[in-house]
Design brief:
The complex is a heterotrimer of chains A (about 575), B (about 250) and C (about 425). Chain A is α/β, with parallel strands linked by helices and about 575 residues long. Helices cover about 30% and strands about 20% of the residues of chain A. Chain A is globular. Chain B starts with a strand and ends with a strand. Chain B has 3 helices and 19 strands. Chain B has one domain. In chain B, about 5% of the residues lie in helices and about 35% in strands. The chains are: A alpha/beta (about 575), B mainly beta (about 250), C alpha/beta (about 425). Chains in contact: A-B, A-C, B-C.
């Protein structure tokens, strides 16, 4: 197949709006090809979208569905010859997830947080999501074995556990959420900051984060640690963000990438001392990112309307539910994690929500290098992913931002700098934030770009970048981004003008890291004891079996010699 | 006034969904168009004329000037008058579930028995039932905070359980008894029950429930004063205190 | 041959520490299981082969004949009910959803006669819960309300709750306060520290009274549900003094007067207790994979039970789309019953309705539902003869093992074959009458 004459944006290969052909052979991009030609003359062509942080599969998502039949009854689409029925808006069913991402031109999506013991469930849902290539990040930040290794300063054993945990969960990378706080929540409390010791474990969140970062680099995992800060969602928490980022400055990455990826930075960029004087501190955060090079972030943009908050930050969810007097689901997971789900609404006239909305945009617009900022809404916490075109057009159009601000609470402009920002992103920057950077941050070598050897995941949008001014014609742009003219996945046209043409099963990426036998043996002594005494299931039934990952892509980082630390 | 008469052609093997039977949907259409409208017999899509005979005035009109008369057994026909905004629907017998779903205006009258979920999520308009009604009259959808927000429902007979669950506005009047848990989780609106009921106003935060017969009262309701309304004495309670509610529950004192 | 860490396929405890001895292609001995589980795993008389009822008598048929006849019945139906699902694995349940979509039927599970009201309660309030290992390691106060695990979930207290020793519960039973709330004494209450007897049908009021007391509102009547105020005050104190409380509930709440309202009130009580201490709540799921069908239906359709696919889109409205609702109203004109026995468990009027429509039964064993069936298809026993996924009562997923080979096809295969037959027959008649 050849995609002919598109206006191509492939930032990873230095291509910004060149007219060129893209050749596909055997599901990959090649130098030359023959066969079917797709006429993309003058149209915007990009690699398929990559979403590095979204809640698409597993217990939290399903709990969100179960507790909100009202959500499921919206967004209902009937069965067709190709598609199973779709339901839901903030918590779509599995089929809707795949179809809706594909319609927008996204082809790779990673589940943000999976507890190891519950990973089987996650994979059962992942396999039901059609079209997309997927992976799932594995939670480690509140884990008893992790905390004990950190306490003992035994990074090699910690690395052995991380490798084992990724195998057990068929996970892709190390996710850390409110480290230590999830364990404290086991008895109903939380940690107050990165140096606040975790009850019963005598370690601090700072130690957990550093320990896992070191283990991550010791294992040479493709992705860095992926971190949801302590104190998320609290006024004044920007100081925790900066403090935590500083903790990791000296750690050397084992690959050419960041040392830490910060999840949904918006929720951790808060100033003020309470909801009354709540304000944005995004400029401080952006400033830090402009001056440092060891971190990346994703936005966590807020979208007005319904959302469902779902996170392993269980104490936060309890607090949310109390504030909003909302229904509340909680799920604490033995030896490993906690989580909560609370349906939510972001109101256009709610001052706090307006400031949150501004912060996400500020972070992207004030950070100079778009390679450091991935576009997300932390679906569905900030809002459903189907609203990405809304976020993109807000970034590209100052007039659109102004029009939005005019509908908001009158005090809102005083609480952030969004009204003063002129910057309008261009297609190259958008392609970075939604394709090239997520792939690089995750360490996916064949995604997010259109060089030879890359997976043939390509999106053609029905708009001509050389003829459309996104600043003025943002409505047109949003419409075009919502339904790609063509979404090509692995060299097959899966979606065309909003219609799903085929729904093949995508692949699941997971990482199998090797560790020295001696470290693995020491680890097994600990694990044997934990299963004998504390877990409620047997070790032999714990790990995710092959049957659950039918179409895997296994990444095997290079092994290392025994006990060689990286940082 | 355009009168459209609809009669079932036979007894239906399974329930029918016919949300097209509403002045809004029918008023401007010719009989040919009406007969071609889509209805569902279980999982079978059918034309309206496959299941019903349509007669009456030919000339298209506005919804407000349209009367839809349903004769015969509509007890297994669901979603009659759904979303109606104007005009009249008269059901000479009983009506199936979800009659008057999401109604916004106009009038729906039912001579016989109105099955469950009458006037679910109603916004406006009026529903009159000469017979009795089933469960979930004027209720909401599962898990949603606000069901009925406006409009009036009047039932001459009795009503089933969960009357006006999640009500946020509007009024419901039942001359007879009501089943368990009327006015559950209410945030507004008015309910009058002429007869007796059981545990009214569970978790109500705002609204008024008046009971002319007996009622078993929840522990979260605190006795206030005795009031007289239209010559009758009622014991007033405030609650439901489990939700810090300021709703009013009036139960006949004699 | 001895197989360890086998997962029992009886109740929602999903004990995964069973040892099974397999001899001559059968399970000869079972260790660690309770007598309910052991009985299931050891098995008993099976249905020998597929049968189709001709002139009132069940006659032997081939599997293909049975699949085709089943498909025929489903295709002819305007509102087919696909019911049961709780005692088979998720892989079969997923095929079931495909079949329900294909034939435009209603899919419902045994939750409808069990914890369906709990699901509705969760839709109102959410569920503040945990895995059973959290209870094992942390709970110092446990409430069993309207359930009798000593009889229905025999190893629950041993493995997960009252008696088990965990990291922060080194004293096991001695370090715990066990409270039973019920309308009568039970085997569970005999081993509890406190039994609170309430009047039948008064669960809602008692829970409301407790909510008042927990949040410091002392103004409640002197007696609620047959319980003196002083006893309610004492109970509220126990709950608030817990370091980690666990509230387990069962059919005593879900099926007494109030039904889902009782559950939603209990869920609120637990949510409110979290303002004072740590508390979790968990329904005591009956069948070993009833939690699984809820998960499967939710991720496939957005709704956990009672899903109607008649119009090509999932529609959920328990009270209208639940199995008992349809049967009570004679609104189902065919039924496929798999891994369940409604003839034994349903209200009489609905069983009579079932007797009037063509029924397809898929089960390893004969039971009263077989007497009503037009097509009987024996299946392999999930968890013994077929592998697959099941979800424990606390939502954790485990993989059931295959211990022995079997000539019987698995549920997954059977449903898959019926689906194929439906598609084939539909294609063949595509030139004929439209659906």
């Amino acid at each position: 197949m050849i995609v002919k004459g598109g206006t191509v944006y492939d930032p990873a290969n230095g291509i910004f709006g060149e007219e060129m052909d893209i050749c596909i052979e055997g599901g990959r991009i090649t130098e030359k090809a023959a066969g079917e030609e797709i006429d993309a003359k003058g149209l915007l062509v990009m690699p398929g979208g990559v979403d590095a942080h979204s809640h698409i599969a597993g217990k939290k998502v399903n709990t969100g569905r179960i507790m909100s039949p009202g959500d499921s009854r919206s967004g209902v689409e009937p069965r067709t010859a190709v598609c199973r029925p779709s339901t839901g808006y903030t918590v779509p069913n599995c089929y809707a997830m795949g179809y809706r991402y594909a319609r927008m031109g996204y082809t790779t999506v990673f589940e943000a947080a999976t507890p190891i013991i519950d990973a089987r469930h996650t994979h059962e849902e992942l396999k039901e999501i059609p079209i997309l290539d997927k992976g799932a990040l594995t939670l480690f930040g509140n884990n008893w074995e992790v905390m004990e290794c950190v306490h003992d300063r035994d990074i090699p054993k910690l690395a052995a556990y991380v490798a084992w945990g990724l195998q057990a969960a068929r996970g892709y990378g190390v996710k850390i959420v409110n480290p230590g706080g999830g364990e404290a929540w086991g008895f109903g409390t939380n940690v107050k900051g990165v140096h606040d010791p975790v009850p019963n474990f005598d370690v601090t969140p700072a130690e957990i984060i550093r320990g896992l970062a070191q283990a991550n680099e010791m294992l040479r995992l493709p992705h860095s640690i992926h971190l949801h800060f302590n104190n998320l969602g609290k006024p004044g928490n920007y100081s925790t963000a900066l403090e935590t980022l500083e903790l990791l400055k000296d750690i050397k990455p084992s690959r050419r990438r960041q040392v830490v990826h910060v999840a949904h930075m918006q929720f951790s960029s808060y100033g003020g001392t309470s909801w009354k004087d709540f304000e944005s501190r995004a400029p401080d955060i952006a400033d830090y990112f402009n001056k440092s090079s060891h971190a990346t972030m994703d936005m966590g943009q807020v979208i007005f309307g319904n959302a469902t908050t779902m996170t392993a930050d269980a104490p936060l969810e309890y607090a949310n539910a109390r504030i909003a007097h909302a229904k509340w689901s909680n799920y604490d997971i033995e030896l490993e994690e906690s989580s909560g789900v609370v349906p939510w609404v972001y109101g256009r006239k709610m001052l706090v929500n307006d400031v949150q909305w501004a912060i996400g945009l500020e972070l992207a617009l004030l950070t100079k290098d778009p390679w450091k900022v991935l576009l997300t809404t932390d679906h569905p916490n900030g809002g459903p992913f189907v609203n990405y075109p809304e976020v993109i057009t807000l970034l590209m159009s100052r007039p659109k931002r102004e029009a939005e601000i005019a509908t908001q609470h009158e005090m809102a402009p005083k609480r952030s700098t969004i009204a003063t920002i002129d910057r309008e992103m261009d297609w190259g920057e958008v392609a970075v934030m939604t394709r090239a950077a997520p792939a690089r941050v995750l360490g996916l070598a064949e995604k997010g770009h259109l060089g030879p050897g890359a997976d043939a995941d390509i999106t053609i949008y029905d708009l001509k970048p050389n003829e459309v001014d996104p600043s003025v014609d943002h409505a047109l742009v949003k419409k075009a981004l919502a339904a790609a003219k063509y979404t090509i996945k692995g060299g097959a046209v899966v979606a065309k003008e909003g219609e799903i043409l085929q729904a093949p099963l995508g692949r699941t990426y997971w990482v199998q890291a090797e560790v020295p036998a001696a470290d693995a043996q020491r680890l097994m002594v600990d694990l044997q004891e934990k299963f004998d005494r504390y877990y409620s299931i047997q070790l032999s039934n714990y790990m995710v079996q092959d049957a659950y990952v039918a179409n895997p892509v296994v990444i095997r980082p290079p092994a290392r010699e025994a006990a060689k630390e990286v940082a | 006034m355009r009168t459209i008469s609809i009669k079932p052609l036979r007894a239906f093997e399974v329930s029918v969904e016919a949300e097209v039977i509403s002045p809004d949907r029918l008023a401007a259409l010719t009989f040919g168009q009406i007969r071609a409208l889509e209805v569902w017999l279980g999982n079978r899509k059918r034309k309206l004329s496959d299941l019903f005979r349509v007669e009456g005035d030919e000339a298209p009109a506005s919804p407000a000037e349209t009367l839809v008369r349903l004769e015969g057994d509509f007890s297994r026909v669901k979603r009659i008058a759904e979303g109606m905004t104007a005009g009249t629907v008269e059901v000479l017998g009983g009506a199936g579930m979800h009659a008057g779903n999401g109604m916004k205006g106009g009038q729906l009258s039912i001579q016989g028995y109105a099955d469950d979920w009458l006037g679910r999520e109603m916004r406006g308009g009026k529903i009159i039932v000469a017979g009795s009604a089933g469960n979930y009259v004027g209720a909401g959808y599962r898990g949603e905070k606000c069901g009925m927000r406006g409009g009036e429902i009047e039932i001459s007979g009795s009503a089933g359980a969960y009357l006006g669950e999640h009500m946020c506005g509007g009024s419901i009047r039942v001359s007879g008894d009501a089943g368990d848990f009327p006015g559950a989780a209410n945030q507004g609106g008015t309910i009058y029950i002429g007869g007796s009921t059981y545990l009214p106003g569970a978790e109500m935060t705002k609204g008024t429930i008046t009971v002319g017969g007996n009622a078993r009262v929840l522990p979260g309701y605190q006795k206030a004063d005795v009031v007289t309304i239209e010559g009758r004495e009622y014991q007033k309670y405030l609650g439901d205190l489990v939700e810090k509610g300021t709703g009013e529950l009036l139960v006949a004192a004699s | 041959m001895i197989q360890e860490d086998v997962i029992c396929s009886f109740c929602g405890c999903l004990c995964d520490d069973i040892t099974a001895e397999v001899e001559a292609g059968a399970v000869s001995r079972v260790r660690h299981a309770c007598r309910l589980g052991a009985s299931k795993m050891m098995g008993h008389d099976r249905i020998k082969g597929p049968m189709i009822r001709e002139d009132g008598t069940l006659v032997e048929a081939s599997y293909q004949e049975a699949y085709d006849r089943a498909a025929q019945i489903l295709l002819a139906a305007r509102r087919p009910l696909l019911y049961g699902w709780a005692s088979t694995v998720c892989e079969a349940q997923e095929k079931g959803v495909l079949l329900a979509e294909e034939v435009g039927g209603v899919m419902d599970s045994t939750a409808t006669v069990c914890h369906g009201p709990s699901v509705i309660g969760i839709e109102e309030k959410g569920l503040a819960s945990s895995t059973l290992g959290q209870v094992k390691n942390r709970a110092d106060t446990i409430v069993f309300w309207g359930c009798n695990p000593a009889e229905a979930h025999p190893r629950h207290s041993l493995r997960y709750s009252s008696n088990v020793v965990g990291r922060f519960t080194p004293l096991g039973r001695a370090g715990r306060k066990i409270v039973v709330v019920d309308i009568r004494e039970t085997r569970t209450s005999k081993n509890a520290d406190k039994l609170v007897l309430i009047e039948p049908g008064s669960d809602y009021e008692v829970i409301s009274a407790l909510r008042m007391l927990v949040s410091g509102k002392a103004v409640i009547p002197e007696r609620v549900g047959g319980v003196d105020k002083a006893d309610l005050v004492a109970l509220a104190e126990i709950l608030k003094r817990a370091k980690f409380g666990a509230f387990f509930f069962g059919l005593g709440i879900t099926h007494s007067r109030g039904r889902y309202k009782n559950v939603d009130n209990a869920l609120s009580l637990v949510a409110e207790l979290n303002s004072y201490t740590k508390f979790v709540v968990m329904p005591m799921r009956g069948h070993y994979n009833v939690a699984g069908i809820g998960q499967v239906l939710a991720w496939s359709s957005g709704f956990p039970m009672s899903v109607d696919f008649a119009r090509g889109m999932p529609y959920f409205n328990p009270g209208e789309t639940a199995a008992c609702d349809l049967l009570a109203r004679q609104d189902a004109d065919a039924a496929l019953i798999i891994a369940a026995d409604p003839a034994s468990n349903f209200p009489r009027s609905t069983v009579q309705a079932l007797a009037r429509i063509p029924v397809i039964q898929i089960d390893p064993y004969e039971n009263p539902t077989t007497l009503l069936s037009k097509v009987v298809i024996p299946s392999a026993i999930a968890g013994i003869e077929a592998a697959g996924t099941a979800y424990r009562m606390d939502g954790l997923a485990l993989r059931m093992k295959k211990l022995i080979d079997s000539p019987y096809p698995s549920d997954e295969e059977i449903i898959g074959q019926i689906l194929e037959s439906v598609k084939r027959q539909r294609e063949m008649s595509a030139g004929g009458a439209a659906r």
